[in-house]
Amino acid sequence: MLLSAELNNALNEQVGHEFGASLQYVAIAAYFDRDNLPVLARHFYQQATEERDHAMRFVKFIVDADGNLAIPAIPAPRSQFSSAQEAVQLSLDWERTVTQQINALMDRAIKENNHIARNVLEWFISEQLEEMASMELLLGMVRRAGDAGLLLVESHLAREGLGGPSEGEAENG
Ligand SMILES: [Fe+2]
Ligand SMILES: [Fe+2]
What we know:
The protein has one domain (5-172): Ferritin, CATH 1.20.1260.10. Helix content is 78%, strand content 0%. The chain contains six helices and no strands. Helix 1 packs antiparallel against helix 3 (84-111). It binds fe (ii) ion (2 copies). One fe (ii) ion is lined by residues 21, 51, 95, 98, 131.
C-alpha cells in the first residue's frame, strides 16, 4: 500500500477542495463577466481551469498509488458579491485555506514517512506560494483602484498579467 487509509481520505478531501475552488472561481469569473470586466473574467476562468488541473493531479496520484478515489460532495460556491474587492478577498482567503490544507497533508506524509506523497505535495507547496502572492497582488490593485478604477486594473492585467510563473503555467497544466 502506497497510501495509508488516513492519507487516502485526506487526499480525497483535497480533491473536493480543489474542485470546490474551481467552481468558486467560475462563479467569480461570471460575476466579472456580467459586470463587463472581461479581463478579470478571463483571469478567473483561467484560475478555475487551473484548480481543476490541481484536482486532477490529486486524482492521478490517488489512482497511481493504488488508492481508492472517492470524490466528496462539493459545496455550492458563492455567486453574489457586493464588489470586486469582496470577490478577490474571498479568493485570497480561499488560497490561504488551501495552503493550510496542503501543509496538513504534508505534515501527515512526513509523519508517515511517505516520500512519494511528499514529492507530489512539494509541487503544491510552491504552487500555493505563487497563487497567494498573485492573489494578494490582485487584491492590492483592486483595492487601490476602487470601483471606478477597475478598468485601469483591466488594462494593466491585459498588458502585464499578474507576473510570476503561475500565469503561463495555467495553459500548460
Ligand atoms: Fe489549487
Ligand atoms: Fe489555487
